[in-house]
Design a protein that fits this description.
Layout: H1 12-22, E1 73-77, H2 83-96, E2 105-107, H3 111-117, E3 128-133, E4 139-152, E5 155-167, H4 176-189, E6 195-200, E7 209-217, H5 220-225, H6 237-243, E8 255-257, H7 263-274, E9 279-281, H8 285-292, E10 299-305, E11 312-320, E12 323-325, E13 333-334, E14 336-339, H9 349-362, E15 367-371, H10 377-380, E16 386-397
Parallel strand pairs: 5-6, 14-15
Antiparallel strand pairs: 1-3, 2-12, 3-4, 4-5, 4-9, 6-16, 7-15, 7-16, 8-10, 10-11, 11-14, 12-13
The structure holds tetradecanoyl-COA.
Length: 415
Amino acid sequence: PQPGQSQEDNSLEAIVRQFQDSMSVGKQHKFWETQPVGQFKDVGDKNLPEGPIEPATPLSEVKQEPYNLPAQYEWTTCDMESDETCNEVYALLKNNYVEDDENMFRFNYSKEFLSWALRPPGYYKSWHIGVRAKTSKKLVAFITGIPARIRVRGEVVKMAEVNFLCVHKKLRSKRLAPVMIKEVTRRVHLENIWQAAYTAGVVLPTPVTTAQYWHRSLNPKKLIDVGFSRLGARMTMSRTIKLYKLPDSPATPGFRKMELHDVPAVTRLLRDYLAQFAVAPYFDEDDVEHWLRPVENVIDSFVVESPETHEITDFCSFYTLPSSILGNQNYSTLKAAYSYYNVSNKTPLLQLMNDALIVAKQKDFDVFNALDVMFNESFVKELKFGPGDGQLHYYLYNYRLQQALRPSELGLVLL
Ligand code: MYA
């Protein structure tokens, strides 16, 4: 107990505290309570200003040595340009990364995807952090940051996007994750960056928004066979297949794959479009060239080029993220497309996304996933997406928002 508190504290505050502790939002977070993030106790407090929670400190005051790991482990910087290292990271994630609640599927990011996701313009090799067992040199944990400019309301803030936090299954619950988070924070600080954005399936202090996944079946028979979805009430397999059938090719005149020479037009489209959301990336042409130019089996992007004026009027994109199917006799991989950034100006969003579904089907994806961020809610029902059970919480590190956002106010998709 704290000084001044008796073991049996029956004050109203103590009862409220006990009640909060028994609720999930009142759950104690021994690590997160020490970090400059919005705390549950401050939710709704209008006296706290928006913006950085802690000021930047002089670089000379940033800790110069890495944090201590348990004695059997050592830090390693993962060179994602090296095929060998990329393979090790790939294997760690393939076997130990995010699973659904029922442990039926596990993300299986491809090597090409990881190499793309971790090497955007201006990336820092030092932010690709691994932990190895000292004796065997086996890679047992990983965390990454990449630099990004994120606009929060009127302000463009340099941030790190932190992702791919993974601790080997055999090393769980040993408080390794907090050390890894502190180490990536230290290395981000060394580059004079003081904010970060990240997403997680778990509730931590404190989400800026909570988004929901929606899933559009493209190959319903396989999805049902592997237990991803179930046959609806009063539905047969053949009626289900018919329900999800799509035309063979996109309907919008001028719908075509994005090319390098589209980068300036797509950058302008995206800039203007993303300006509507409270939190969104602030992309320049280099970012667009990296993040939105098609890369085989990684990212697909399409523009609508007006047949008359040759103007680029609309844009849509999705990324490729397969999942391993755990313990199924017939199938090992679920091929999923994830909605990325879409810009609808002249082509209605519903039609644009229907075309995205059509090309995803052509490319043999089993399912098309979208979060209810941006204007995605406006098309999911009509395009026969079904709500998923997973939620994705979005967070900012060292940046306070006075109020949580609705997912539709968010213009950010993290990989
Ligand atoms: S989200 C994807 C996360 N990865 C997975 O879900 C893969 C499968 N799971 C694992 O590998 C492990 O379970 C992980 C935790 C590694 C997740 N984000 O070591 P522990 C807190 C943040 O004993 P383990 C992604 O990659 C937990 O609340 N914190 O636990 C974005 C507890 O703290 P507290 C998390 O299960 C990552 C502590 O860790 C997460 O062995 C963004 C327990 O540690 C989580 N997903 O390992 C990271 N899960 O007691 C933050 C658990 O306080 C970046 N915890 O509740 C912050 C910004 C940093 C840069 C700042 C720059 C300025």
